[in-house]
């Protein structure tokens, strides 16, 4: 089931894993910015555009994870 960007995105940071593409995203609610982290890699420094296809696929088919899971990453 998809992840709803509604009220939750306005109130807190959200972490998403999209295992099909071996990627995770971090939504920073204060800055309204998206960051990406591929498995076994550090988080990219560049902000992901809101219309990024991979991010929007992750919203549809990924699952929400915890901050700790995001920081730990995946091999």
User: What's the β-strand tally?
Assistant: 4
Tally of structural domains: 1
Rounded to the nearest angstrom, the radius of gyration is 11 Å
User: What fraction, in percent, of the residue positions are helical?
Assistant: 25-40%
The average pLDDT score comes to 95
Main β-sheet, spatial strand arrangement = 3-2-1-4
Low-confidence residue ranges: none
Order of helices and strands: HEEEHEH
Strand content: 25-35%
The best one-word shape is globular
Quickly give the structural class.
Answer: alpha+beta
Question: Explain this structure to me?
Answer:
By secondary structure, the chain is α+β, with helices and mostly antiparallel strands. It has one domain (7-72). Helices cover 27% and strands 27% of the residues. It is built from three helices and four strands; from the N terminus they run H-E-E-E-H-E-H. It has helices at residues 7-11, 53-61, 67-72, and strands at 14-18, 23-28, 33-38, 63-65. Strand 2 (23-28) and strand 3 (33-38) form a beta hairpin. The N and C termini lie far apart (25 Å). The model has no long low-confidence stretch (mean pLDDT 95).
State the main characteristics.
about 80 residues; alpha+beta; 4 strands; globular
List the helices and strands and how they pair.
Elements: H1 7-11, E1 14-18, E2 23-28, E3 33-38, H2 53-61, E4 63-65, H3 67-72
Antiparallel strand pairs: 1-2, 1-4, 2-3
